[in-house]
From TrEMBL:
This is ABC transporter substrate-binding protein. PANTHER family: ARABINOSE-BINDING PROTEIN-RELATED (PTHR43649), OSMOPROTECTIVE COMPOUNDS-BINDING PROTEIN GGTB (PTHR43649:SF29). Residues 1-30 form the signal peptide. Transmembrane segments: none annotated. Keywords: Signal, Transport. Belongs to the bacterial solute-binding protein 1 family.
Amino acid sequence: MRIQKSGVRRRGLALAAGVASTALLLGACADTGDGGGGGGGGEAEAYEIDCSAYEEFGDLEGKKVSVYTTIVEPEAETQQASYEPFEECTGAEIEYEASREMEAQLPVRVQAGNPPDIAIIPQPGLLQTLVREYDAVLPAPEQVVANVDSGWAPEWKEYGTVDGTFYAAPLGSNVKSFVWYSPSMFSEAGYEVPETWDDMMALTEEIAANNEGATRPWCAGVESGDATGWPGTDWIEDVVLRTAGPDVYDQWYTHEIPFDDPKIIEAFDAAGEILKNEDHVNGGLGGVDSIATAPWGEAGYPILTGDCWMHRAANFYATQWPEGTEVGPDGDVYAFYLPSMSAEEKPTLVAGEFIGAFTDRPEVQAFQTYLSSADWANAKAAATPSGGWVSAHKELDPANLATDFDKMSAEILADEATVARFDASDLMPAAVGADSFWQGITEWFASDASSKDIAGDIEKSWPKD
């Protein structure tokens, strides 16, 4: 993938298979038969780590490390299960706190002098704000630096670096350029998975014409508490990559061109051909304005009731489907690559989380080290038996991933031919990427504001140098 930018209890530890219940909490069925051998069976497989890696941090028995994150249920259970090898090895206890409002609340807690020990930061732009405005995040310890240098492509380390200092190790990785659909609905209607953007738009028009308003080609929702709007920004970013190209995309998020550059407004309008067209959205949920209030985690559900045909969402949406939903090419739902302008071009939107520490106690540094290691990446894969998670860590064993869909996502991340760009809103200053862009895209749906007006308002919010 080309991205531009002595508290040790025992030497080896098997990850307990006690998270079998996550198969019920996670929406996607692991044993999907997607492509012959998804590998998931709803039960976590044992994964052993070498506890000696954490001996240098001393006796951590009974020590506590607080973690603050946006990773809520259903993913929260497997996230916490992935910490068990570290807890068993060291005797330390991880105190997990998750909130969808974490991006907004973390700066408040920092300013109040009450930060967590570690935050799982979903945006490099937020990391930059925490470093530059509050001087709150501590540089990564040498053990973390070593892990990242050996386990990750340099570009990922750059995303956790601010003004030449490395602060935050990458954690999970996301592939966002997917469209979810019902294979059986497509098959029964005689529709083919589109290979180009024009193919997809022609399919959209055909579905709209054939169903005469009974269903809609697309469904979408951007409601996400204090983070409302972010799924809509993903749409715009994916379209900028396709209509304007990677070079313009880079100029956009670095503000070498203004947010309301004509090429960006053109991308808004191209997305609007789907998202602002009453004939094309919002299947099973309402009109265009309902996108602003439809919860993002449920916005794809109308596919299951036949009210909607397609829903653009990242690989992790596999975890959002209701209990019992089968994910696979012959299942209830599956996903295809969001097409580009030609079948030869494969621009791909990616994202991920980063580990920022606000204290440097030995137990905190030990946990940082674990999270930046191949130990954690493979333990997380083993602890996610229903799938919907992947990482760009070089030493992640694909065999530990639960489904062929996850393996496909990992292949995309690892493929040198993939021209990937990190989520632009996550790279922009937090005042834009985690504020005015979210608000603007929500208003774009809620009040039918024009692309030009929305982009212009967001440009006005860009921090002055």
